[in-house]
Structures are given as structure tokens and as C-alpha cells.
Specification:
Length: 376
């Protein structure tokens, strides 16, 4: 049989490429003549660059930028064979690297520095993968690195970190948009939240980045004030657009610069040629660390399943954990949902044993599929 293996990463345990390789080992034990096509996936968050590089290659570029806490790092950018430069926010201002630093002091400046460096090097097709950010500054620091001047009541310039927005009095956006006039800017995200309000960046995503519940309303108001000033200056209404609340408001900054929002998983699938690959296989395996009702909201396995359904190819889900929803929507989207955890075990044990357990699970599912096809 011909198998397509298109999983996302098992976060904290296995990269997407390692997940696909473990699946292949199991399948080949059940089907020694198997033809396995590996297409590790991502949804615009952590691992997006690596998934693309594993499938289509490209050239790695590196630039010195600030991380979320202000330290200078060498951050990678992947230049794809088609000329698209892919910037992964998680590798510049990612949540794990921010540690226990106060969220008010974190800054998205490094993302703006990376964009400026790409423009300086002549790149005119840029994709920004937004997932996995640690900041919640409304994209203010990112835009400040690109020329936006944020000023307090005394006319002093602010850096744009979250703690600065309480002092914001006025701003100067002259020249901010000119550099992007001839740039094709794509925004890869699975989030459609607006910048502020009950479904905004701070209310929905702020707590997981360290925003205290008592501070949500105040911070949301400060970000709203910033965006109102900037929208008014540029005569736009960007803060209400779907996706402007992605990545702590970086979605707002990218939309303001003329970016086009699209599903991260669909964008990655397009660059991987997943639709064409599906025409050459008999069965598909996808998966992720944990699958639940949120999986169907634009996550990589849901994208793979939708493309497989359109191609008439069966698709099974092999994830670290599978949490069924009462409506059965997750189960109804796949030809079988399987979890690696078949006995009581700690999370640490499950993550450490993931390669072996995944290969065993892939082998058993493959044997069931082969037996059913032989009996048909």
C-alpha cells in the first residue's frame, strides 16, 4: 500500500518529522512493501520552518534580532525554493524562551527587526507564521522597529513593550507603510480573534502568557487606545479585523502593513504539495500531541483530513491523547482516532516513550487496515 504520513509535531516530545518517521517504522513492520510518503505538517506555529524544510528544502538565513526579553539572538528565516521568506514568530519571541519574565516587559520588537532585515536584503515575498508568541503588546514594539514613533506626554519615545502602552500619548506613523508597498505579505495563523474585547488577544490568550485576571481589562484598554490612535492616523479600521488578535496583537500589526490573513495549516499544505501527493496514496495518517474539539478549528490534522476527504482517501488520526467531543465531530472527521496512551501513565512517561509507542500504534492500525482490505 501507499501511505501518506502528514502529522503535526507532538509538542514538547517529537518534531513533526520525527512523528512521521516513527509512523513509517510501524507501518513497514506491518507492510514490508509499503511506500511511505512523508509530509510532516505545521499550522503556522512552532515547527513551521522545520516542516517546510523537511519537505521542500530551501535556504536558511540568519539575522541578529531581539528576543522577547531584549537579548540579542541569531534568528533563522527560511527562504523557500519559490522565493517566499518564512519568518517563524515562535523562534524569535517564543513562549518557552520567555521563561518567567513579566509579560509587561516582553516586546515584539524582534519580529519588526526581522522584517526590516528581510526588506533590506531584498525579499519581497514574506510569510509570517504567527503561532507560539510570548508577547501581548498589540504589535506596538514590532511596528516601532519598523519606524512607528510612540511618544509619551513629554514627547519622549517609547519602545512599545506592553508596559509602555500605559504612557502612550500620541504617535507618528509617517513612512510606516511605504516600505511594504511592493511586498507580498502573508500572515499564517489559525486564530480569527479581533485585537481587543471579550474575544481579543488579552482576554483569550493573555492568561496563558502570564496576564493576571485582574489586569485583563486595564491591558485590553491600553491596547485598544494604541490601536485607536494608529487606525485614526492611518485612516483604517484594522483592530476589528478577524485575526488581528493573533500572537498578542501581532496579527493587527501585520494586517496594518497590508498582510493577507490565511490558515497556517492550509498555507503549509500548499507549499508541501499535499493535494497532489494525495492523488498517489491509498491511506493517510495524521496526528498531534493532543486532539480535541479545538483540532477542528484550523489545526494541521483537520486540514489534512479535509484535503484527504476531497481526494477520496481515508485518513486516520494517531495522536498522543484524543479527547472526544460530545457531538462526535472529531471522530466523524477521521477514519478512526487513536491515542498512544493505552494504559494509565504520567505525561512525562508518555512523552519519553512517544517514538516507540507511536511506531507500535501505527503498526497495529496498519495491520487492521491491511486485514480489512484483504478481506474485502
Amino acid at each position: 500500500m501507499r501511505w501518506l504520513l502528514a502529522p503535526d509535531s507532538y509538542k514538547g516530545s517529537l518534531e513533526a518529522a520525527a512523528v512521521a518517521e516513527a509512523m513509517q517504522r510501524g507501518i513497514e513492520r506491518a507492510d514490508p512493501q509499503a511506500e511511505c510518503l512523508l509530509r510532516p505538517m505545521a499550522d503556522g506555529g512552532e515547527g513551521t520552518q522545520d516542516a517546510l524544510y523537511a519537505a521542500v528544502g530551501g535556504q536558511w538565513l540568519q539575522f541578529p534580532v531581539c528576543n522577547a526579553t531584549g537579548d540579542t539572538i541569531m534568528a533563522p528565516c527560511l527562504l523557500l525554493p519559490d522565493g517566499t521568506a518564512v519568518l517563524e514568530v515562535a523562534r524569535i519571541i517564543g513562549l518557552p524562551e520567555a521563561g518567567d519574565s513579566p509579560v509587561a516587559q516582553r516586546s515584539s520588537r524582534g519580529v519588526g527587526q526581522m522584517l526590516a532585515a528581510l526588506l533590506q536584503s531584498g525579499q519581497r515575498r514574506i510569510a509570517v507564521a504567527l503561532g507560539g508568541s510570548s508577547t501581548n503588546d498589540g504589535g506596538a514594539a514590532c511596528l516601532a522597529a519598523l519606524g512607528l514613533q510612540l511618544l509619551n506626554a513629554r514627547g519622549q519615545r517609547l519602545d512599545g513593550a506592553l508596559q509602555d502602552l500605559s504612557q502612550l500619548f500620541t504617535l507618528d506613523a509617517d513612512g510606516l507603510l511605504q516600505a511594504f508597498a511592493d511586498v507580498e505579505l502573508e500572515i499564517w495563523s489559525d486564530v480569527d480573534n479581533p485585537l481587543s474585547g471579550p474575544r481579543g488577544a488579552t482576554a483569550v490568550f493573555g492568561p496563558q502568557k502570564g496576564v493576571a485576571a485582574a489586569d485583563i481589562a486595564r491591558i485590553d484598554g491600553e491596547i485598544t487606545h494604541f490601536a485607536q490612535l494608529l487606525d485614526a492616523r492611518l485612516q483604517r479600521d484594522t483592530r476589528h479585523l478577524p485575526g488581528s488578535g493573533a500572537a498578542g496583537g501581532l496579527g493587527y500589526a501585520m494586517l496594518l502593513l497590508g498582510g493577507r490573513m490565511q490558515s497556517g495549516a492550509q498555507a503549509v499544505a500548499r507549499h508541501l504539495g499535499l493535494a497532489a501527493a494525495l492523488q498517489r496514496v491509498d491511506w493517510v495518517f495524521s496526528g498531534e500531541g493532543r486532539s480535541d474539539s479545538q483540532t477542528l478549528a484550523g489545526k494541521a490534522p483537520a486540514c489534512v483530513a479535509a484535503l484527504a476527504r476531497a481526494a477520496g482517501v481515508p485518513v486516520s488520526l494517531l495522536s498522543g491523547a484524543v479527547i472526544a467531543d460530545e457531538q462526535g465531530a472529531l471522530a466523524g472527521s477521521f477514519d478512526g482516532c487513536y491515542s498512544l496512551c493505552n494504559r494509565p501513565m504520567s505525561l512525562d512517561s508518555a512523552m519519553q516513550e512517544a517514538p516507540q509507542r507511536l511506531a507500535q500504534l501505527a503498526e497495529q492500525v496498519a495491520r487492521t487496515i491491511l486485514a480489512a482490505r484483504a478481506a474485502a
